[in-house]
Amino acid sequence: MLSCRTSLYKTAKRKKNNKIKNKRKNRNVSKNQIPISEKQESSDPEEADTEEGFSLKTSAPSHSHGVQPLGNLYLTPSSHNSRNTGLGNLQTLTDELVLEILGLLGGTHLGVLATVSKSFYVFCDHEPLWKNLVLENLIDGFLYNGSWKYTYIAACNPSFDVSSIRSSGLRVRDFYSDYLFQSWLCANLEMKPEWLERDNIPRRKGISIEEFVLHFEEPNKPVLLEGCLDNWVALEKWDRDFLVKLCGDVKFSVGPVEMKLDDYFKYSDQAREERPLYLFDPKFAEKVPQLGLDYEVPVYFREDLFGVLGNERPDYRWIIIGPAGSGSSFHIDPNSTSAWNAVIKGSKKWVLFPPDVVPPGVHPSPDGTEVACPVSIIEWFMNFYGATKEWKKKPIECVCKAGEVIFVPNGWWHLVINLEDSIAITQNFASRMNLLNVLDFLNRPNASTLVSGTRDRVNLYEKFRNTIEASFPGTIDQLVLKAEEKKAQQKKISFWDSVTDSKVGAFKFSF
């Protein structure tokens, strides 16, 4: 978990000007606090420049209910934390456990419990609790109403005027909680410039298919390709207004719910949260056929052997729409496939690690069925990104902009965050270069839990292998033979190695 006393705190640079010192003293700003409020409150450019640390989004609200990071408690004369007094005997529980328990309650019970004390009021008002209630109970879609709590209340009680309670939030003094404060902080932080400056991915434009296969697909290395989308209708037409008009009342997958595009855009306009909902729909072309006609697969990725399965193939293509801050935390693409991701509008920050390097802060289970990682993408950047600068194997990074395509080789860990409102198309595929990896993955003992994108997980291996054999006789045997030859070649001792070994042996014998 992110710790506000350690990872979040940044040492503030202080000027010798006594007036500025006094201002900071009055605000209880110390070297152990997060230097964010000064940048928001100060109108003096010289004073604002005295801080190094995190910048808040211009639309960031003051923290809900006045919750402060725990480090501030040690600077107050009273050393009183109203969080504890309001919880009574439950104060010994961690914030996470308190919220875990509250997550078992419904909206009515949360509302009642919020009247018990100021502390329970703060905890019961925690937005993720209400977000879960909305996503669990309003699976057919919802109209976002400025906050998840108001959204739930308005949906369950349409006659109730939510605006009447919108400005009645209670401010609690001397409430200190790292966990609650970090959620607000991660939701409102801007990406730091140093998180975006590293760009070490190979970039290519106009290369041949043979060059792509030789230098990137076969050695399993990522590349950013330019100029591949120049003939896409989507690149010219796809914007918010066009898509809303084209798609009408069609609903798309947004996490666990289905939403109309217009409703989703209204949500994304208002959302200020740590993990914004991401529109990620694998059936978009079936729902709105014109969407599938407005783009074509770049020439480098047209060999997709899963195509032999026709309608029985696993999910393989998605339209992706999301606001700034939305994205995907570290993962490896399903079924050992490779992928390409094309940005149509906006821009995305990518961080990729090769298959043999697990990203810092990420803990996959031994069987690969689960991956534990930080709660949010911003949290990963705050706590773990800096460590990668010292690594021998540094991640591959880039910002992929509109009109550009990134190739993500199979097995690579990758994280993606939208830097602005973005629209993209992505597809996963299996070519000859990674067919054996895919077959091996589908044939694992725990395939029933590993395989995704299809209802028939158990039989997918046999079905896919048999269809490949029928469609491309001898292909699998040829690929296996080639792989064995390559493996033997790698193990073969070179002439110079053999000479060195013989010298060592002679040296030992002489003694």
TrEMBL record:
The protein's UniProt keywords, in alphabetical order, are:
Iron, Metal-binding, Nucleus, Oxidoreductase
InterPro entries per record: Cupin_8, F-box-like_dom_sf, F-box_dom, JmjC_dom, JMJD6_ArgDemeth/LysHydrox
Basic residues: which segments have biased composition? 11-28
What's a Gene Ontology MF term here? Answer: cis-regulatory region sequence-specific DNA binding
Report residue spans for region: Disordered.
1-75
Which GO cellular component terms are attached? Answer: nucleus
* A Pfam short name: F-box-like
Ranges for domain JmjC come to: 286-446
Cofactor entry: Fe(2+)
Q: Please note every region of biased composition (Acidic residues).
A: 43-52
Claim: Kinase is one of the keywords in the record = no
The record ties this protein, via SMART domains, to: FBOX (SM00256), JmjC (SM00558)
Where located? Nucleus
Q: Which family does it belong to?
A: Belongs to the JARID1 histone demethylase family.
Report the protein name in the record. JmjC domain-containing protein
